[in-house]
Amino acid sequence: MVFILGVNFPERNLVKKSLESFFGIGNNASSRLLARFHIHSTCKVGDLANKQVLDITAALSEMKIENDLRRQYLDDIKRLKETGTYRGRRHALGLPVRGQRTRTQIKTAVRLNRMERRL
Amino acid sequence: MVSSFCWSCMTRLRPTPRAVLPPPVAAPRAASFHTSTVRYALPAKKKASLDGPPKFREAKSARMKKKKPVEKSRPPSVGERKALRKRIVLSNPNALEVEGMQDLSSENMVDARLRGSVLGLPVPMLTQLRAVEAFKPKQGWSIFRRPGTVVRRETLELGRFIDGISNEGKDKGRSAKKIVTGVRGSGKTVHLLQAMAMAFTKQWVVFTVPEPQDLVIAHTSYAPLSDDTPHLYVQNDATAAMLSRTVTANEQVLKNLHISQQHPALKSSAKAGMTLEELAKLGIQDPAIAWPVFQALWSELTATSPAPGFDKGFKPRPPMLVTVDGLSHWMKNSEYRSADFDPIHAHDLMFVRHFLSLLKPGSEKPALPNGGLLLYATSASNNPTIYSFEVALKQIAARQAGLNASAPEFPQADPYSKADKRVIDAFDSAKPTIAKEGILELQTLGGLTRDEARGFMEYFARSGLLREKINDAWVGEKWSLAGGGVIGELEKLGRRLRVVN
Questions:
Q1: Where in chain A is the domain with CATH 4.10.910.10?
Q2: Residue A41 Cα, gap to closest chain B Cα (Å)
Q3: Does B307 map to a domain?
Q4: Homologous superfamily of A67-112 in CATH?
């Protein structure tokens, strides 16, 4: 088991996949991180050198991921609501924000957009 | 169910007068003895069946029984499936032993009388050949009693060349560089295998890269070479794997050679008096220093004389055979990325760069100063299309034919095709200045001749795989079917089972 940014990953997991388990890191960000520390894309967590683990953790702690990113996300929505924009209103009403039709197929908006938005 | 009651018999009966019949009883007859309880009992509830009309908000569709989940057995353990996929079977106990089949030896590898016959690979050598991964899983070794290869024209030439370098004579210390091409199934990989087998019989040192693709698909670790050269990369695990192949296969030779110079890159770990086997094992044990160890091993094997202070027990180094099977993967960007997320060209990987630099003529001493052979094969089945590599191969052929690079008919890359200049430069070697070093050549393997094809098919027949009368007409037919004796196609025809009446 290897700790990366406080999370324990089993050694057989791919490094790339493990990085992508953090909120805010997708394919692009994880590929770039791997390239930055010269880790090949099929590397397993167990094969990482100690220094590489520390490097990755240091790089991750500088990035805006996980709760910081979630907070920013919610703040942005909150700002829209408070300034009374159309988008903010749609967020509060539980309706699609970006001009989709609302006759059918708005499940995602119903599920997510509400007054107390959660991520 | 059809009732056993016959209605036609029924109609013939006279209807009994109603009054005679006892009054019909509503209660079931089965319980005739105790009638009262049955009479007072509540009417039996209708069985809940699906037959009735659907009730309000109740689905009336056929209810399928859910399949029970099949109990899954445990998945195969890590590496088991790959081991099965890469398994190499070299023997088939059901095949007949071919009587009178000779083994490859240093005497008969130059024997022109054996042309067209199949020479067995000596059994003790098989471990060495396995170690350098000379056999590939998809080859048909598993249908014969024991592995053997057919002696064709190119094999004899190779044998003569290897024999000439190894023996005392005017050819001693010569080196040749060849790129082996040919259509699919023309025997390029087996040609390399034959070269390895001959080199092992002559006590050469053999370096192989059986899968060049593995070095560029980002499946093995990489790291920058040093802080001064951030654009060059070493692959320590791949280098350690190559050292391990080399040590296993050439143990006997490397055991008898000792260190003959200082290796500042290895600091204290390389001690004077160490054998080269021990030196190479340093890199296997600690992959972090695999690349400096490989460089040290290479400089030891290419040494022509000992450095001052290391004179004691210096033995002349044996010739070397270097094979690479599937060159074109090295001619494009690798899947690795630099720290800035730019793709890394395969030529920036030190491993690849080293083996490609051997193609260039040496400036002071030849690339292989103790003689030897570079055999780099292309692949026709697993082959990325790289325009600049195709042009480079044409240029090699033209240079070999004596064309000057400035001649108008010298093949040049189309200026609009964005040819990779690095690839063309890698093969753009001037004529070597040192007499013993050969020019880079292109060797194209074609089909077997009819005589060789006949010998090959007879081998199938004598192994009990082919039940045919092998005569010239039959062989001629198969030779034509095989695209003019392409040996891979001949093998397919030979192993195909046929019912004989």
A1: 67-112
A2: 6
A3: no
A4: Ribosomal protein S13/S18, C-terminal domain (4.10.910.10)
Q: Is B4 domain-assigned? A: no
Nearest CB to A38: which of B219, B335, B339? B339
The reported pLDDT for the residue numbered B13 is 53
Contact A40 B341 (CB under 8 A): no
- Evaluate if residue B395 carries a pLDDT over 90: yes
Number of domains into which chain B is organized: 2
- Residue partners of B435: CB distance under 8 A and separation at least 6: none
State which residue of chain B sits closest to A41, comparing Cα positions.
B218
Q: Given a cut of 60, is residue B27 above it in pLDDT?
A: no
- Same domain for B334 and B468, yes or no, is no
| 3-state SS, residue B62 | coil
Does B322 lie in the same domain as B461? Answer: no
Buried b (16+ CB within 10 A) or exposed e, B190-202: bbbbbbbbbbbbb
- Answer whether A35 touches B (CB < 8 Å): yes
In chain B, what residues touch A37 (CB-CB under 8 Å)?
339
| pTM given for the model | 0.82
With contacts defined as CB-CB under 8 Å, which chain B residues touch A12? 78
Rounded Cα gap, residues B131 and B373, in angstroms:
19
B255/B247 Cα distance (integer angstroms) = 9
CA triple B166-B170-B174, angle to 5 deg: 55
Spell out which residues of chain A touch residue B335, defining contact as CB-CB under 8 Å.
41
> Would you place residue B240 in the very low, low, confident or very high pLDDT band (cuts 50, 70, 90)?
very high
Interface residue A51 vs chain B (CB under 8 A): no
CATH topology of domain A2-63: Helicase, Ruva Protein; domain 3 (1.10.8)
Q: What is the DSSP string of B396-412?
A: HHHHHTT--TTSTTS--
| Nearest chain B CA: its distance from A3 CA (Å) | 21
ipTM of the complex: 0.84
**B120 within domain boundaries:** yes
Query: Could you say which of B78, B219, B338 has the minimum Cβ distance to residue A35?
Result: B338
> For chain B, which residues lie within 8 Å of any Cβ of chain A, measuring from their own Cβ?
78, 218-224, 233, 335-341
B476 and B429 within one domain: no
Nearest-Cα distance to chain A for B290, in Å, is 16
Q: Does B351 lie in the same domain as B228?
A: yes
**Residue B397 clears pLDDT 90, i.e. is over it:** yes
- Secondary structure of residue B84 in the 3-state scheme: helix
Is the predicted pLDDT of residue B122 greater than 80, yes or no? Answer: yes
Domain stop point among B437, B461, B481? B437
Q: What is the pLDDT of residues B308-361, one digit of tens each?
A: 877 777 888 999 999 999 999 999 999 999 999 999 999 999 999 999 999 988
Nearest CA in chain B to A42: B219
DSSP B208-276: EES-GGGGTTT-S--EES-SS-TT-EE-HHHHHHHHHHHHHHTHHHHHT-B--S--GGGTTSS-TT-BH
Q: Do A42 and B222 touch (CB under 8 A)?
A: no
**Chain A nearest CA to B235, separation (Å):** 10
Measure in Å the smallest separation between the Cα of A46 and chain B Cα atoms.
Answer: 13
B270 inside domain: no
Cβ neighbours of residue B171 closer than 8 Å, sequence gap 6 or more: B161, B164, B165
Same structural domain, B110 and B248 = yes
Query: Which domain does B431 fall in, by range?
Result: 81-257+318-437
Q: Which of A36, A38, A39 should be substituted to probe chain B, the one whose Cβ sees the most B Cβ atoms within 10 Å? A: A38
